[in-house]
Every structure is written in C-alpha cells, then in structure tokens.
Amino acid sequence: MSVPAESEYVPGQPGGRFDPYVRLIRSLLPRTACISMFGPSGDLMWSTDPMTGPDLMNIVDDALLSARANPESAGQTRLLAGNQPVYLCALRDEAQQLLALLAVACRSSDGQDKRNHDFSFAYSLLAPAVECLRRDLIAHTTIEELTETLGGLDKDLNLLLTQGAAEPGGGNDGANELPQLLQQTIEHLRADTGTLLVPEKSVMLLRAAGGVAPDTQFLMRTHRRLLSLAHAQREPLVLNETQSAAAPEAFPHRVLCCSLRSRAGRSIGVLALLRDAAADPFSERDAHIAQILARKAIGVIESNYDALSGLYTRAALERRVRALVTDLKAAQPWSALYIDVDQLHAINDKSGMHVGDSLLSQLGELIRQRLPPGAFGARISGDRFAVMLPARINDAERFAESLREGCGKLNLVQGETRLPVSISIGVAPLDSANTELAHVLAAAETACKAAKDRGRNRVEVYHASDVSIMRRHADVGIAGQLREAIESGRLHLAAQLILPFAAAESARPHYELLLRMTDDVGRTMGADSFMSAAMRFQLMPVIDRWVVNHVIESLKPRAGILEGKALGFAINFSGQSLNDDTFADMLIESIASSGLDPELFVFELTENATVANLPRAEALMQRLRRLGCGVALDDFGTGLSSLSCLRQLPVTMLKIDGSFVRDVLKDERAASMVRAIAELARSMSITTVAEYIETEAISVRIAELGVDYGQGFAIGKPIPLSDLLTELPLPSEPPAAGADAAAAPGPQGSVAGDSEEMTWFAGVTR
C-alpha cells in the first residue's frame, strides 16, 4: 500500500487536508517550527516549510534505512538537525508496511540541554494526532486504490461494451474489425505487442502499441510454439518468467496466451500479448479480459468466415465490397473474379456430399494460398466463389488462369480413383458505380456463365463487344425489373386476332394473348425484351402461374356469357413450369374450381420444351385432355422429333413456326414444309395455325397451302385484353339492340361470317 504524493501544504489554507493535524500538533508542541511528511522512498510528500534543509533530509534517509532494516521497530525517535530537535514518527498500516514518515522540527529552548530533552513526554503529547493521521492515511490510500480499481473495471466494461456494440453484421467487416479489436486489446492491457493467428482462415495479424514497430522476427520464430501452447491450454496461459540463465527456454518477453476455440471446442488459433521483461507482470485480471476478447475474436471470425473454405461469407464480402467501392481510388484498378465449380452436383450424387465438401475445402485453401496482398475472396453460395483483386484486367486474367490450372491438380480421390476437377471463371473490371454485390459482380458472373456455355473449365473475360456476354449482362438488370414488375402488378396481357382462311372448313376466328410488362418509367415492353432474362433466372414458373390466374379471374365474371358458346382461350406455359412438381396439380385444380367450362382452354407448349421432358409433358397433356381442355404444340417443325411428338402426344392444334411462314414466297422448300404439315395435321384432325403473316401476299400463299388459321400484323394488331373483355357483356347487362350475341369483337371491327358462334383461342406467346 503506497500513499500518493500531495500538493505542497500551505499553512492556513481553508479546507487543506492536513490543516487540522498541523493545528493540533502546534497546539501540543508550541515550539514546533516545521512539520513535514515523507513517503516510504524518502520523497517529500508535503511540508509547512518548503526549506527543509539538507540536515533534515539526511536524518530522514537514515531513519528510513533503519525502518526498512527493522520493520518491527516502533519507529519513533528524536534526532538533531543542526541545533534543532526533530521528532520522527513512522506511520504503518495494519500489515506493518511503511506508509509515511512524519517529521516535527522544533525550535531549541534557551538554557536547555537539547541532547537531554525528554522525547517520551513529547511523543505522549503527539500520539493522538499521529494515530489519527495514520488512520487517515490508511483510509485515503484504500479509497485511492478502490478508485483506481473501479476505474480499471470501468475501462474494462467500456472496452467490452464497445466490442459488444460492433456485432458481426452490424456494418463492420471482419478484415477491419479484427485489427481494431487486437489494437484495443493491446492498448487496454498495456501490452507492447499483440498477435492474432488463425491459420485455417488465413488470419495473421500483428500489432504494436503507440506506433512502435512490432517484433516480427520474434513472431516468425515463435508462432508455432504459441499455437502449440494455445492448443494444449483451454484457460489463458500467463508466462511472466522471462528468459535468463536459469530459464534459457523461456520467452524474452512476458507472455499472455489465449486459445481461440470454435463453437465445437476445437482450437483453431491463438491471441498472444507480449510485455517487455522490465514491465509489470500480467495479472489474473489481464488474463480474464484477454479471454473475453479472444471469445469476441472467435465470434467475429465465425460470423465473417466460411467454415468450409476459410474465405469470407457472402455477407462479409458484401460489407467489404461496399467499403471498397466507397473508398475506391481511380489510381488503383480492381478486377472481380466469379468462380463456379463444374459439375459439383454430379460429384455429390455419385461420390457423396463429403467428397464435394472436400473439393470446396481444397479450392478454398488454393484461393487463400494464391491471393496476392490486398486481395480477398469469399464463398458466395454452395459451389460459387468470388475474388476481388487489386489488379488490371490482364493481370486478373493470368491469375484466374493459374487458379484454373491449380484446381485441375487438386487431389480429389474416391477410393483409389482420382476424380477430375475443373472450374469456370469469369473476369471483369470492378464496377465502382454500384455498391450492391450483385451489381458489382454482374459482369464477372455473366462472363463465368459464358465460360460454362462454351465448354466449362475455361476463363472468359467480359468484353462489351461479345454479343452473347452482353445479352447475359443485360438480362441481369432486366431480371431485376421483371421481379419488381411481378411484385407490383405491372404485367398485363394484349390480345391479337387470328383469322380463319376461307378454304378452312368450319373454321372460326379466335385470339391469342401476348404478355407485356410496364417498366418503372411507364414504358411498355414486349415479351422479346424480357423473356430471355425470365428463362435465364428461372422466373417462368412465376410468370406462368400469374398468366393462368389472371386469365381465369378475368373470365370468371363472364362465365355465364361464355357457357355454351364453344369459345376457347389457349394459355402457353414454359418448360420450366413443366419441371415444377407443383405446377400440374395447381393448373388442374385452378381450372376445375374456376366454374368455367374446361373446353374454353387450349394449353400451348413449345415443341422443344416438350421434347426436353417428354414423360412429364405427355402426362400433363393427358390430364388436360381428360378434363376437356385442348392441347397445342407451338413452334412446330423446329424440333428434332416433330413427327414422334405428333404421334405420341394428344395434341389438338399445331402452330407452324414463323421461320417457315416468312419464307414461303421465296423458298419452295419452306412452302413444301408448310403444305406437308397442313396435310399431315388435317389427316389427324388437328387444326393448324401459321404465325408471322406480315403481308397480304404471304396470307394468300399460306391459304393456298391448306393452313386453317393465320396470325400476324397483316391480319390484326394486338389490343389490351381488358379492352377486348369489356365488349363481352356481364351476365347482368342486356345485349345491345340489334347486336348478334354470338358475334366476336375484333380490333378492326366485327368479323364477317354466317355461322352462329365463333371460337376464340387466347394464348400467351413468348
């Protein structure tokens, strides 16, 4: 226990801490000239007279030597300083530790023998004041120590609360949060150097206090030993004994070592703090605080780093990229790599998930080992990785190529068989105009998908002049607009008239529905503008469900008018919906529960989509036919198995592909194909429709070839479906006077005809 030095005592100053004792001592010893108090080391704490003189200092030094040599002595004595008597009183705590030395110098009395002055009488007078002063010092020192302890605890709590507020995912990325945590730990625990090592996550941090250069050589020599110590200890390890002749194996620094353990309890790294050999030893409190901060470091690591690959998680990468794009300097070009493991699903299916996980782990290690300074990477989904390189596109391409080659050498073994491994990589300049990860990586992802389309196991660089890559890149943005349009109800349908040719026996006109989207600025976009994106990003099942529900809900109010009219609406659905396990049941249930006559509907599917999944297509078509719906094959003639499909499937309509129709005037082979399809369909009682009739001459020629219906701008332009339906009266509305209740409305007026009823087929073309 030590007493802090006081400011110089000023006699008579109001409120002075020692003023009562000074007055008491002067009243007890009227001849008192000076009162001084010295600390255990001989330093002057305070005095009523700043001129203590060399004699008094020498007396105090001798008395302190005697007190330290004989702690059990009473410590009260009378000495002479010059011709003045000096009374010394040692003030000790309950453990007999010296707190202070009180010196009372008195003026000499004339005619008295100064050497024979009775000290015991003087001390008996001083004893009450000295005891009160001793107790005051003990109480004051205890309060000071408690205040210091509480201050330290406050700092501990503030550090822990500060670290607790910066939870992973709260805006900091692991790359910045870990160095900050390490630096704060070093400064708070008064260490000279600190290190955070997690080899499997490629985390190797070294920091020093106050701008001092860290001892990197020491870390290089001892990091394996530190990791070994951490692996063997669950609790913090304090090594305050430093290297000496008696302990040559000890560290040259005081060391505090904390193991970093995963949630599963496995040791994955170490937090080590170093102090100079001459500094204060590490305490239990230091070890406790370091252990708490080590757990915090584990939380940061496990939240920001993928457990399998050791790279960033997607969320951590998003924060890092956002910070990078915000601070990006034009002088430093950056490139993005998008990496996709080829055929990982096949490896998982054939060899097991554990083999696939081993591949992802090895690939993560390969990326970590090859990352240049400043670069960082992440596993952004199951089999996909992203890397950000501070490099120009040419250097990034070389890095990607070396990564691809290195992946081919990975040792992926099942039993005694080595499995082939490859990756496809897309490379693009970093898009600094966006802060969202999906937009930043869009060009690189597009190039990666082009690499997969072009054979896999290759590197593709994004070029604006590459048409296929540009199409993919544009689809990324369009897909986002399409999702927003679906959610906000900006999809709608238009109707286009399809007329029967005069030669068609018992043919009736009908309509086809065309899908439209209104973008965020109010422009109407045709299906050709967004269908590629919808197919690429698996949005077709959502769109198909919307179309089915929208058509049924639009027709329900007019169910009474449509009943018995033999009117039909053809709805086209995609191959993606055909592969959706729930779509077929949804479709059948929607029709059956709609209250509408199933014969109103003809459902279209492209020939290529049908061939791609023939068993499912046939099963759904059979269910639709049993329900009473019609079935159509769209784009007929472009597939490789047209006749086989026609023989096997219960189709009621063929839509001849427009590529044949457009060329019938200049290509006799195209005309022959159209005639053959029409004759074949007629022999099987199947209706035919020719698409893309753009001129009157084509219309005449198609009729001559025996096709039943024609569709195209030469026959009718699309109008909104809502406008078409308004011409159908609701059940509560009487028909207009003189109107033919069976007449079909059309965009160019009523269609002439002498039959009592007309058939409308409404389909969705894409």
Architecture blueprint of SSEs:
Blueprint: H1 19-28, E1 32-38, E2 44-47, H2 53-69, E3 76-81, E4 84-92, E5 98-106, H3 119-165, H4 174-188, E6 193-198, E7 203-208, H5 216-232, E8 237-239, E9 254-261, E10 267-275, H6 284-304, H7 314-327, E11 335-341, H8 344-351, H9 353-370, E12 376-381, E13 384-389, H10 393-408, E14 413-414, E15 417-418, E16 423-429, H11 437-440, H12 442-453, E17 459-461, H13 467-488, E18 491-500, E19 510-518, E20 524-526, H14 527-536, H15 540-555, H16 559-562, E21 569-572, H17 575-578, H18 583-592, E22 601-606, H19 607-612, H20 614-627, E23 630-636, H21 642-648, E24 653-656, H22 658-661, H23 668-683, E25 687-690, H24 696-704, E26 709-711, E27 719-720, H25 721-726, E28 764-765
Parallel strand pairs: 16-17, 19-28, 21-22, 22-23, 23-24, 24-25, 25-26
Antiparallel strand pairs: 1-2, 1-5, 3-4, 4-5, 6-7, 6-10, 8-9, 9-10, 11-13, 11-16, 12-13, 14-15, 18-19, 18-26, 18-27, 19-20
Helix pairs in contact: 1-3, 3-4, 3-6, 4-6, 8-9, 12-13, 13-14, 15-18
